[in-house]
Write a structure and sequence with these properties.
The complex is a heterodimer.
Chain A (H helix, E strand, L loop, with lengths): L3 E4 L2 E5 L4 E7 L3 E9 L5 E7 L2 E5 L2 E6 L4 E6 L8 E9 L9 E2 L3 E6 L1
Parallel strand pairs in A: 2-11
Antiparallel strand pairs in A: 1-3, 3-8, 4-5, 4-9, 6-7, 7-8, 9-10, 9-11
Chain B lengths: L4 E3 L2 E4 L5 E6 L6 E7 L6 E7 L2 E5 L6 E5 L5 E5 L8 E8 L8 E2 L3 E5 L1
Parallel strand pairs in B: 2-11
Antiparallel strand pairs in B: 1-3, 3-8, 4-5, 4-9, 5-6, 7-8, 9-10, 9-11
The chains are: A mainly beta, B mainly beta.
């Protein structure tokens, strides 16, 4: 079982819809990283958070440390948001701090 | 400033050959990490280097090796290539180890035939 689980694996939405992607992790973490991967492979960092909530434009990320859960929300989705969204957890177990554990990603397709 | 750059962008090799992938970090970043991403999966950690020293290694066989140069650029080497080594190889840099966010390159797509 992967230490970081994402849901759903695939998500199709109509333009304008509110999107939620979930990430659950089984180990204690010091930080969680949300990433966006475009079809060509390039990965862009969206958020790094260790508590609470962060917002950037139409994107909102939240994390609940007690429940070991994070969500990425996209408001007023647009076809250009179509990409794979990946969460990665940085464990807080001493020397393993370097070893990010990645979820498998959520493929989001937003139709016009 | 240029982002993380990787070369080549695409590569086709045959089984048994070896391959060298290259990565230049963002200027000022001293830590480089390598990841393998198989189609449909998230990236898997291979190596982290900092100040030219290996600081971490993932669960990959000894056919995989890497090094970091004085200018903080890095090479990933894979010997005796297998079909299963076909993947997108991603490099990421950060100021220091443990630092987030990571800055990723666009990757090298390796196909082994």
């Amino acid at each position: 079982k992967n230490e970081v689980e994402q849901s759903p694996q695939n998500l199709t939405a109509q333009e304008g819809e509110f999107i939620t992607i979930n990430c659950s992790y089984s180990v204690g973490i010091s930080a969680l990283h949300w990433l966006q991967q475009h079809p060509g492979g390039g990965i862009v960092s969206l958020f790094m958070l260790s508590s609470g909530k962060k917002k950037h434009g139409r994107l909102i990320a939240t994390i609940n440390i007690q429940e070991k859960h994070s969500s990425l929300h996209i408001t007023a989705s647009h076809p250009r948001d179509s990409a794979v969204y990946i969460c990665a957890a940085r464990p807080n177990s001493g020397g393993s701090n370097y070893k990010l554990t990645f979820g498998k990603g959520t493929l989001l397709t937003v139709n016009p | 400033d240029a982002g993380v750059t990787q070369s080549p962008t695409h590569l086709i090799k045959t089984r048994g050959q070896h391959v060298t992938l290259r990565c230049s970090p963002i200027s000022g970043h001293k830590s480089v990490s390598w990841y393998q991403q198989v189609l449909g999966q998230g990236p898997q950690f291979i190596f982290q280097y900092y100040e030219k020293e290996e600081r971490g290694r993932g669960n990959f066989p000894d056919r995989f090796s890497a090094r970091q140069f004085p200018n903080y650029s890095s090479e990933l080497n894979v010997n005796a290539l297998l079909l299963g080594d076909s993947a997108l190889y991603l490099c990421a840099s950060s100021l220091v180890p443990y630092d987030l966010p990571l800055h990723f390159g666009n990757g090298t797509r390796l196909t082994v035939t």
